[in-house]
What we know:
It is a single chain. The relative contact order is 0.16. By secondary structure, the protein is α+β, with helices and mostly antiparallel strands. The protein has helices spanning 40-149, 154-161, 166-285, 416-419, and strands spanning 304-306, 309-312, 319-322, 325-328, 334-336, 341-348, 354-361, 364-369, 371-374, 381-382, 387-391, 401-408, 411-413. The strands form three sheets. Strands 1, 4, 6, 7, 8, 10, 12 and 13 form an eight-stranded antiparallel sheet that branches. A three-stranded antiparallel sheet has the order 5-11-9, with no helix packed on it. Helix content is 57%, strand content 15%.
Amino acid sequence: MAHGGNVAKVVKVRSRPILAATLLLVCLPALGPALGSAPAGAATARQRQAGVDASIQQVNGQLDQVDSQEVQIQLQIDHARAARAALDAQVGAYNARIGRVEGRLATAQASLDRASAALVDTELRLTAAREQQSQARERLKNDAVTAYMEQPGPEAASAILDLKSIDEVQRQMSYLQAVAATDARDLARLQRLTAQTRDLQAAQQAAQRQALGQRDAVASNETELALARQALVDASAAQAQSADSLSGLQAQLDAEKARLQAQLAALQAQSNSIAALIRQEEAAASGVVFTGGQLAEPVPGAPVTSPYGWRIDPILHVRSMHTGIDFGAPYGTPLHAAADGVVVAAGPEGGYGNATILEHGGGIATLYGHQEQILVSPGDHVSRGQVIGMVGCTGWCTGPHVHFEVRVNGTPVDPAPYLGLS
């Protein structure tokens, strides 16, 4: 595979990841001398065209790099935005969970408040009951002391005996017994009330502890959710900042691309103008018209693996013009000159890898790309069928083959008619 012709390339895939703050613009090596022979005026124009074509090749290489970087940046921007959207969705889910937890927390706090209030009321009731019990005990103690101190002596007995009837005596004794029984019942009631209140206090203390534990557990859950949510919010903000930074770099690349495309258009126009001048001068100097079927195949019997014309570039993976014919052959297979001619270039030629260019006269030149080894030098005269190199896979290449071009007055044309293949 080789890349010929002076057309802008648009690369949409393949590149190493780029640094977000760096514009890496790599200049590919320019193609070698222009093709074909011409009189003095055409030779001067050809030199000018060679310089312009080299600049075009260089700008094309820069555009390749800018396009590749743009693809990578866009992928990173898309990734950052997708990551942010996913994080925002998670934040929304956490917001909903926190809202539900806050509702449970409010319920738990209300339960705790009710339990605490009931406990306070019970403690007040218990305090009052204990006070009443204490007072009752004090009364009983006092009554007991009084009864002991005031036990009826002979005078009291006489007083009782002096009552007019037994009914009066019974009424007096019943009254005293009723007073004592009432005091005993009051004390027993107070004791029962105290015990009941104490049991209620214990139950309400347990309820308060349970409500407090539930409230604290819900509050802890809310805190954990809030921390997780904040981490997601921070990550989302970081992704947004990354996307913004990448968008800024993409804008710089767009500006650089526009500049290079304008430069390429100007260079292409200049190249076209020079090519037209060369064709005019050569047509005026020579009436030779080359017809098809007069060139020998560079690798006799080798299969055509990629014809001339538009195709999907196997390296750049974009639609581009293939300016020659690829003949598949193993490494080291001899390459033969298509016709008698003079070597005008022999060496590395950018995407062509190691390439040889032969000038055959009449405005016809041939190119042999991706060689493993070049066996001729510039200025050498070669004969039709002479071995000039070995098949390889140098330059932009996916496997061993020779990229063979035919150029008429410097412009690539379909080699098939010149090889008798059409």
